[in-house]
Amino acid sequence: MFCEVFYHRLYSNSRIFVSRKNIKWLSNFSLFDKILVMEKTMLLRKNPLFSNLNDDDMISLQEICRDRDVPKGELLFSEGDLAEGFFIVASGRVKVYKLSPEGKERILHIVHPGGAFAEAAIFGDGLYPAYAEPIAASRLLFFPKKTFLDLLHTRSQMAINMIGGLSRFLRQFASQIEELTFKDVPARLAGYLLELAGDDDTVELPVSKSQLASNLGTVSETLSRTLRKLSEENCIEVSGKTIRILDPDLLADLAESYKE
Q1: Of the candidates 77, 121, 124, 113, which has an alpha carbon nearest to the alpha carbon of residue 98?
Q2: Residues 108, 198: Cα–Cα separation, whole Å
Q3: Which of 2, 129, 139, 183 is the most buried (most CB within 10 A)?
Q4: Are the beta carbons of 98 and 108 closer than 8 angstroms?
Q5: What is the DSSP letter of 77?
């Protein structure tokens, strides 16, 4: 009864479906653990890797994943480490990055709550291809490689979802390479701000400006000059980490522009 009431009160506007089978499974848990399981189920179902899974699959995932609370700055893995599994961010943020031989950091992407990372590493040569580190205190769900792969052998929908997830991963990097090759910093920044804003006209940068510069493939000084130039052109208004978009059409045109 608790689970049904809890679900209808807190998740009535979501697309999460809690069946009687799941409610029966949840009856084995304490009140506190039931809340954690429900929250974890909602998080997993929002991730494309685990969308459209049936109740049996979802229960199996809950049984193999492990919660990890990690502080800001703790190195999760290094490039070349043996891949022991992959992660989903429950709260906080994690940066995935490469280091040049001189030690210069290049952020590949920043993973926000609901996002997965290192899932590709459990296939192929089984090595992590980059570094990963929380940029804020984070709670992560860790999926061990062996038990997850064993699960894939018997769960066809989960395997199909994983293929789709890896395809999105490849498209993301193809797009990133295209932007770094054919677009300059103002165009990359414009595209980032529009994606971050969605339908809003004000955004709060989720990372520091130095981290954003690395994510955009540039340096802090160039990013600062670009922000200042866009402000002078009355395209945006900058106040600390808060940016208000004044001219979305101009910003959209800039985002679509290519290097001459």
Answers
A1: 77
A2: 21
A3: 183
A4: yes
A5: B
233 Cα distance to chain centroid: 32
Structure tokens at 179: 């932007």
pLDDT of the residue at 132: 97
Matching residue, tokens 């280091």: 99
CA angle in degrees (0–180, nearest 5) for 254-256-260: 80
Burial of 234 (0-12, 13-18, 19+ CB in 10 A): exposed
pLDDT, average across residues 217-244: 91
Residue 35's Cβ-count burial label (10 Å; 0-12, 13-18, 19+) is middle
| Residue carrying structure tokens 């809690």 | 18
Reported for 178-184, long-range contacts at CB under 8 A and 24+ positions apart, including other chains, are 179/217, 180/217, 182/258, 182/259, 183/257, 183/258, 183/259, 184/257, 184/259
User: Facing residues of 109 across strands?
Assistant: 96
**Per-residue pLDDT tens for 174-226?**
777 777 777 899 998 998 898 888 888 898 888 888 888 888 888 889 999 99
Task: Work out the average pLDDT over 138-145.
Answer: 95
State the Cα–Cα distance between residues 138 and 142, nearest whole angstrom: 12
Nearest CA among 148, 160, 131, 43 for reference residue 85:
148
Residue 138, token pair as written in the block:
């984070």
Structure tokens at 155: 């769960």
Supply 233's token pair. 């052109």
Q: Is the pLDDT of residue 101 over 60?
A: yes
Q: Domains in the chain, start-ordered, CATH in brackets?
A: 2-46 (no CATH), 66-149 (2.60.120.10), 183-255 (1.10.10.10)
The pTM of this model reads 0.69
